[in-house]
Amino acid sequence: MIHDRQSIMSDSNPTSDAVFIGVHLAADRVRSVAVTEHGEILADADTPYAMLFNPVTVKGQLELNPEVWWDATRQSIGQLINKIRPLVASPSLVKAVSVCCQPGAILTVDKDGTPLLPVILAADNRGADYVQSLNYHGLEHCQRMGFQFKAESPLAKIAWVKENQPELYENAFFIHQADYIIGRLKGVPDTTEFSIAVKTGCDLLDESWPDWIDYDMHLGVRDRLPRLVHLGEKVGVVSAKASSATGLPAGIAVIMGTASATASFLASGARKLGDIHCELHGGMTISGIAAKMVRDPHGFVQVYKLPGKVWFTSVESNTGTEWIKGWFAGSSFNELEAAAQKLLPTTYLAYPNVKKGETFPFVSASAEGFISPATDNRTAQFASCLQGTALFERYCYQKLDRISEVKETRGDVYSGGEHSASDSWMQCRADVTGRVNYRMVGHGGAAFGTAMIAAMGSFFSSLEDTAEAMLSTESVFFPNSERTAQYNELYAGFCALMEEQGYTI
Fold first, then answer.
1. Is 50 exceeded by the pLDDT of residue 31?
2. Contact 424, 458 (CB under 8 A)
3. Distance (Å, rounded) from C-alpha 356 to C-alpha 359?
4. Beta-strand relationship, 253-255 and 94-101
5. Is residue 385 within a helix (H) or strand (E), and if so which, with residue range?
6. Mind listing the pLDDT tens digit for each residue in 56-78?
7. Which CATH superfamily is domain 19-258 in?
8. If DSSP codes are grouped into helix, strand and coil, which group holds residue 16?
9. Does domain 267-436+478-500 have CATH number 3.20.170.40?
C-alpha cells in the first residue's frame, strides 16, 4: 500500500484542490491513488487479480482472461472513489485519470477492442522460435535501440499469432495491458506510449512503427498496432459506461500513461541531467537521466523516453539489501545499525551480494559476496555491509555515468525503498558517493507517478511544473567533505578487491 505523503484530509475539511487518479497495473494487483494538485494523497486502494494466469496444456504458455484486469481495475477505482467522496468538495474537482503497466503482455482484439484470444503474458515463451528471425531482420533497428528481441517481447508473440492463427490474424489488432484498460475507460483501445511499446518494435528515435516489421518480417501489422503518443497526452474522456462501472465522473480526461518504471521515476524527484533515482530493495534499481539514448550491447540497461526527447536509463543489480535478512537473520536492524555506525568508516570492505551472480555493473553468473578481511565480529560485519552497499552503489554510478556519457554533470540521488528511512545510512551513502542524497515525502511509486501524469496532461503546463507542485522533500543529506576523503581511499581499495575477484566494470 502507498503511504500518505502528508496527512489525509478529514471529513470535516474537504479539499477544494484539483484531484487526479493514478492507476498502476502491477504484476499481481491493481493499485490506484487519488492525489491533489499539491501532492497530497487523499486515499489509495489495492485490489488483487482474481487469478494470475489460466493454465494451458502447452508447456511454457501463460494466458489470462483480460476481464481479470478490468475487474480488478474497476474494483480498485470504485473503492478509491468511495473513499474520496467525503474528502472532495465537489465531484468536478476530479480532473483526470491515467494508467501505467509493466510491458510484455500482448492482447489480440478486433477493431472495436473486443478480445479475440486470451492475453499472452510476458513470461509466455511461445514466441521463442521467432526471436532469431526478428533479430536478423531487425538488426539495424536493434542496434539503433540497443537491445535484442527475446521470447518475452510482444512482437515475438505477434509473430506466433500470425503463424498459428492465420484466419484470426487477418482481422486482428494488437494492444498492451495499459492500452486495454485505457480503452475500457474511454471506449476504444487505439493508443499506446513509447516506453510501453518499445519491445513491440516501435522506433524511439523516429517515434514510429518501423517499415521492417512489415516489409522484412512480413507481419503486415503496422496498421493494426495502436497509435503512438507521448505520456501525458489526452486521448479521450471517461465514457458513461466506464463511469457506471468505476464511479469515475463521466467526461473527465483520460491521459496516456506509460511503463511502470517510467511512472516510478517521475515520482522519485529526479529531474535534471545526471540525477539518479536509487531504489534499495532485495537488489538495487538505479535509473538516471541521460543526455542521449544509451545502447547497451548486453541488454541489461533499459531505455525509456520522457517528454521533450529526454532519456533515462534503468538498471537492476542483484546486490541491494538482501544481505540484511540473508546474513543477519533474526537480528534487530535498528540495534545493529546503531552499534555499527560508530565504526564507520571501516577498513572492513564488503561486497554484500547474497545471491550468486550479478547483472550490473558487471555481468557474472558466479559472482559471490565477501567481507575482507574476514571477521567474526557481528557489528564489524554489519558496518562493512552498510558501507559496502554504498561502495557498490558508487561502483554502479561509475558504470552508469560511463555508458550514459555523463562527464561534468553529476546530479543528485533521490532514494527510495524501506531503508531510505535510515538517516545514518542515507548520510553514509551521501559521503561514499559524494552526491547530495534526497529523501522525498512519502515516495508513492508508480501509482503516484501515474497520478502526476494525469495532472500533467490536464492541469499543469509541463512535467517540470507538475513535479514542482506535487513533489516535496523530507530530508537532504549533503556529503561530509572529511568523510568523503576517507571514503575515496576505501573506494579505491574496494575497486582493487573487486578487480582481484574478476568483477571489473
1. yes
2. no
3. 10
4. parallel
5. helix 378-404
6. 778 889 999 999 999 999 999 99
7. ATPase, nucleotide binding domain (3.30.420.40)
8. coil
9. no
